[in-house]
Specification:
The chain is 48% helix and 18% strand. It has seven helices and four strands. The N and C termini lie far apart (105 Å). 13% of the residues are buried.
Length: 188
C-alpha cells in the first residue's frame, strides 16, 4: 500500500511539475522593426517644433501646407499681373491698417534698398509695387513653419553641402483670420 501511495504521490508531483513548466514557458521576444522616418515625417517635425502649448496634427499640417501653397501660387499670378486690388484680398486686416499708415510708410521708405532710394512709399499700393513684389518674385517656397496653430511662416530651404548647413529664408507670414490664411506683413 505504501508503494502505491508513493507511486501516486510521485505521479502527481511529476504531473504538477510538467504543468507548472508548461505554464511558465516564455515566448521569445518578437523583434519589431521601426521604420526610418520619411522626409514628410521630418518636415512635419521641423514645421511644428517651435510651437509651445499647442498641437498641430499631421493632417492639419498637410491641409494648412496645401492651402498656403495654393495661396502663394495665386499670389504669384496676381504679382505677375500687378493686380493690387486682388492682392488686397489676401492681406490680413491688421497688416492693411498698419501698412496704410503714413508714418509707417515714411519709415519703410527710409529702409528701401539702394536701387530704390529716392522712392517715397505714399500708400499700400506703392508698398505692393516696390517692396512686396520684388522681394518675392521668383522665390521657391519649400516648407511651412508654425509660430503657433494660427500663425505660419512660408520658407525657402537652401542646403549647403559644402558647409553642411541649412539656410531658412522667410518669404511669407500667414495668420489665420476667420478660418482663412491671410498674408501678414511684418511690422517694422
Amino acid at each position: 500500500m505504501k508503494k502505491i501511495a508513493l507511486t501516486v504521490i510521485f505521479a502527481a508531483v511529476t504531473a504538477l511539475s510538467f504543468v507548472a513548466c508548461q505554464s511558465t514557458k516564455q515566448e521569445a521576444p518578437v523583434a519589431t522593426e521601426t521604420a526610418a522616418p520619411t522626409e514628410d515625417d521630418l518636415e512635419y517635425q521641423r514645421s511644428i517644433n517651435k510651437i509651445e502649448g499647442e498641437t498641430v496634427s499631421k493632417e492639419t499640417f498637410n491641409a494648412d501646407k496645401a492651402a498656403i501653397l495654393k495661396k502663394i501660387s495665386e499670389l504669384n499670378v496676381i504679382m505677375s499681373k500687378k493686380d493690387y486690388n486682388s492682392w488686397l484680398k489676401y492681406i490680413s486686416a491688421d497688416s492693411k491698417k498698419y501698412w496704410s499708415d503714413s508714418y509707417t510708410l515714411a519709415k519703410a521708405s527710409e529702409k528701401l534698398p539702394k536701387e530704390l532710394k529716392g522712392i517715397k512709399l505714399r500708400n499700400l499700393n506703392d508698398y505692393f509695387t516696390y517692396v512686396f513684389i520684388p522681394s518675392r518674385k521668383g522665390r521657391q517656397i519649400d516648407e511651412i513653419r508654425y509660430n503657433s496653430a494660427e500663425s505660419v511662416k512660408a520658407v525657402q530651404v537652401t542646403k549647403s553641402e559644402e558647409e553642411n548647413k541649412t539656410k531658412i529664408t522667410v518669404y511669407y507670414n500667414f495668420v489665420k483670420e476667420n478660418d482663412d490664411w491671410k498674408v501678414e506683413i511684418p511690422e517694422l
